[in-house]
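PROTOCOL LOG
Step 1. Enter all chains and additional molecules of the complex.
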Amino acid sequence: MTAARDTILATLAKGRSAVKPVPNYVLPPWTNDAPGHFMAKAKASVAEVHTLSAVDEAPESILAIMAANQLQPRLHLPSTSPLQALPWHRAPGLKIAPEPPSGNDSALSQADYGIAETGTLVFLSGPQSASSWHFRPGCEFVLLPRYGIVPRFEDIIMRIKALGRMPATLNLITGPSRTADIEQTIELGAHGPRAIHILIAG
Amino acid sequence: MTTDATSFPQDARAALNNARLQGALTHLKEGFQVKRAAAFAAYPIPFESLREQGRAIKQSALAQLDELLVQFEAQASANGGKVHWARDAAEARDVVTRILKESSAKTVTKGKSMVTEEIELNPHLIANGLTPIETDLGEYIIQLRNERPSHIVAPAFHLRRSDVEESFREKHETLPPSRSLDNRPALVAEARGVLRRYFEAADAGITGANFLVAETGTAIIVTNEGNGDLTRLLPRTHIVVTGIEKVVPRLEDASVLLRLLTRSATGQEITSYVSFMSGPKRTGDADGPENFHVVLVDNGRSALVASPVHEVLQCIRCGACMNHCPVYGVIGGHAYGATYPGPLGAALDPGLDGLAKTYHLPFASSFCGRCEAVCPVKIPLTKIMRYWRGESFARGIPRSPFNTGLKLWAWAARRPNFYRRMASAAARVMRILAGKSGRIRSLPVLNGWFVARDLAKPAAESFQSQWRRRQ
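Step 2. Run joint prediction.
Step 3. Record the structure below.
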């Protein structure tokens, strides 16, 4: 092991050359109407976007979306999730299930941020945030606070650097799972969700 | 896979006569070229300045690769991960097998990884009593068929829907034979169900990495299916196997390269999933792997850093060069007989595998330069192929008729009078052969050249002789 490490590093050291400085990046800022840009891009990624005036509307809204899409009124939500505190009594008939969802179930999670440039949801792993839940269900509902929408991924990097450390897993998710591996034609729901409903609150 | 491109001319000819492959290759244009062009056209920054940034990032990273790898190792270890180093394919296979045995793993899910193809990991795992399951749909299909990838981004690119149906019916024996599989959604749904059981049962998961970030000890993977994430997140142990050239200094650098990668590969502004994996689950985390390993594979790369072809290491594996190559476009990937096909392969394979088995590949180019024009990190691919051509000539590597021809020509070219006499004799013969039609439709030895082309009748008098006469 050490031998391999030493040999590789020694060969690389011999090949070192002067490091030319990388010029400052020129990238579009997308600062003009980030939430509007986010919604347009998220829709283009085949996510469904819904707007709520307040987080408390989520239970009724989810139940209505489930009915409209002929989904079973059963929503997987980890018992540790802060979203357990939503007024679920406002969605009569909607059953909340704490166990991990299987490939045909619906699940709910909360995104930490949204990226306007690409309509991307950002999830940081943690005690209340199970990364695998974004890949297990057939349909994922995602609550995204409007104030969490930032222009670009670079803004997320700044926030993470301020936290001091990367989470174990950071997921950028843009639209449902898809594959073009059969005859170069896109099919949704390869392994992850077939559908994503983003509820933008506030 | 073991690289052996010695039968490239025969394999390329067979590919030209393979009707199924020719059908698949027609998808390159609308499947890749059109989407890529549209994606860059829609971005406010011109492709040229974006790729200048990409090239600068990769060149700067490669110039200080040793320091970045040491920094990556320190950060990944601080995150609770373990970094391993492997000089060659055998060492890499052994490291992975040892990690798996130490964690008592049996079933291993795999995300898409060209480096594990390069080191022939799967046969080695099987020989050691382990069961590797490819989970990228394209990789899964070719694993069922015991084939190898024909494209670095779309591994099952050469197959038809009916081929997939046939493989699923043969291998998914427990499913009812009467089920309908005559459409893509049904095939995708079946693979989803079958593979989900593997994800849930797996003891370990192996993925590649599109980038490594030195400052945070992070491995980044880019997928559309989500298979890479289920491979990482559900088992106890996650192993990343990747090449040493993938490391960049900062997250910001990776961000720029991601914009170039997904647009160049599939014409997407971003793929469905981009995942940043920095170590095992933390204390109290809701889920994630308990163990996190990164295997840094050299396998010929470190020796290329100081070589005249060092720029080939800038490659971010988008596949745009092969999608736009007129040679790849008519022979597909398998004929190259190597892990990396197309212009990238022609530039990289001789460096990784030596010229003895790859000497044909740098000649598999018309030097039209489309590969360079679309390369998101501006690798001078034709310059590198030309270098390998020179090396193979200098080392006298058997390409006998070609090398002898080249030597004869060089001998003649250094003798202007002789050359002139020969050229004018050849022109006279060709004028006779062309006859009244004014075109030559065949010549001895050059049958292949005339399949789709003819030659114009040479002029009665050469340029040089006219020049002298008119002076």
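Step 4. Note key features.
Chain A touches chain B through 77 residues (CB under 8 Å).
The helical segments of chain A are 2-14, 34-44, 58-68, 153-163.
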